[in-house]
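Issue: ligand-bound run for cytidine-5'-diphosphate - logging full I/O for the record.

Environment: standard queue, default settings, no custom constraints.

Inputs:
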Amino acid sequence: MIIAIDGPAASGKGTLARRLAEHFELRHLDTGLTYRAVAAALLAKGLPLGDESVAIEIAQHLELAQMDKSVLSAHEIGEAASRIAVLGGLREELVNLQRKFAETPPGAVLDGRDIGTVVCPNATVKLFVTASPEARARRRTDEMISKGNEANYASVLEDLKRRDERDSQRTVAPLKQADDAVLLDTTEMDIEAAFQAAVDIVSKAA
Ligand code: CDP
Ligand code: CDP
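Outputs:
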């Protein structure tokens, strides 16, 4: 069983993916972390984000179990991740890694931007999770403040919109709902309501 979850930044896809994995006893991969890990390594080495051959080399040595979400969640890393995510050769490398993870029994929940369209086109069930930009910016701001970071709602909203635009407009594997994905708009839902809705969708499809 493979559950594919895609959606824009701070739509709640990561939280849903983690909880669905627990509920259905599957493994979970936040594919955004793979792009973030490569971006963070380039930033740490002071290398340009457009250096695709180095990015590919970093991707080839990536250890999924070593990716630390708390370190990689920094705002600048998310921005850098979306810049390197336009590189086709790098994506191919990361997609291979993600597919291997997905296809290892008993199956998995993967969340990202292109899981239903590119990584796992034959997934058992596909969810496209979304919410208004304002709701997403509010969630991301609250999340940053709760972790003790500074956050300004207006600039978080601007950044989210810019990243969504870049992710939706790129030519390789843009953020887009797969034809056979179920749309889940969580603008008016808290995380518990969104989780219940997602469990219903998956249970019907599986
Ligand atoms: O993975 P993604 O960036 O799509 O989002 P997330 O990390 O799962 O969620 C971003 C933040 O929004 C987290 O703090 C969630 O608890 C919160 N959230 C929420 O308040 N209501 C929802 N329906 C979904 C997420
Ligand atoms: O948590 P949030 O939704 O803010 O971001 P993320 O899922 O960690 O992804 C960071 C960036 O990586 C995104 O803005 C995309 O540009 C890129 N990404 C991608 O291109 N394809 C994926 N499957 C996952 C992430």
